[in-house]
């Protein structure tokens, strides 16, 4: 019987959170410098939820629309709410959940805290082909 791989074993423990009023140009610069493909967008208050900004969002909603990176705010183009998965979820279920919702990223939650992010790319590249 094969060993069950959990989300916390393949997640990206390093991630960044930014405020929704951050300009896309600043967010993209941060993503390039820190080699990130996505940023979490902080909730505005306790009744709000996290958003996510991906390189795909920037390509689709800014560049292809000929909007200006330095004039567009992250909140204008982010996706919200962000799917979340427990750190203890088996990876095959996380992969199924992400594909069922047609998203590439989810927040990883442990003890009611965001502890990382998991992506379909990360799941595939860390999958044991043995």
At a glance:
With 130 residues, the protein is of the alpha/beta class.
Structural overview:
The chain has a 3-stranded mixed sheet. The mean pLDDT is 93. A hairpin with a 2-residue loop joins strand 5 (105-110) and strand 6 (113-119). It is globular, with a radius of gyration of 15 Å. The chain has one domain: CBS-domain. It is built from 6 helices and 6 strands; from the N terminus they run αβαββααβαββα. It is of the alpha/beta class and 130 residues long.
Topology at a glance:
Elements (H helix, E strand, L loop, with lengths): L6 H4 L6 E2 L5 H10 L4 E4 L9 E4 H9 L10 H4 L6 E3 L4 H10 L4 E6 L2 E7 H6 L5
Parallel strand pairs: 1-2, 4-5
Antiparallel strand pairs: 2-3, 5-6
Key attributes of the depicted protein:
CBS-domain; single chain; 130 residues
Adjacency order of strands in the biggest sheet: 1-2-3
Number of domains: 1
Radius of gyration (CA) equals 15 Å
Which residues sit in consecutive blocks of at least 5 with pLDDT less than 50?
Answer: none
Q: Can you tell me the CATH class?
A: Alpha Beta
Helix-strand string = HEHEEHHEHEEH
What's the helical proportion of residues?
Answer: 25-40%
The coarse overall form would be globular
Derived structural class: alpha/beta
Distance between the termini: 13 Å
How many β-strand runs? Answer: 6
Q: How many strands, which pairing sense, and closed or not: the largest β-sheet?
A: 3 strands, mixed
What's the pLDDT, averaged over the residues?
Answer: 93
């Amino acid at each position: 019987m094969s060993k069950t791989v959990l989300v916390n074993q393949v997640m990206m423990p390093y991630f960044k959170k930014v405020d929704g009023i951050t300009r896309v140009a600043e967010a993209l610069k941060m993503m390039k410098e820190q080699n990130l493909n996505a940023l979490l967008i902080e909730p505005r208050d306790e009744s709000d939820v996290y958003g996510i900004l991906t390189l795909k969002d920037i390509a689709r909603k800014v560049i292809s629309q000929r909007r200006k990176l330095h004039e567009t705010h992250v909140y204008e183009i982010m996706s919200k709410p962000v799917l979340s998965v427990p750190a203890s979820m088996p990876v095959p279920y996380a992969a199924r959940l992400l594909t069922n919702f047609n998203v590439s990223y989810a927040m990883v939650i442990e003890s009611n805290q965001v502890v990382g992010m998991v992506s379909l790319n990360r799941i595939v590249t860390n999958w044991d082909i043995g």
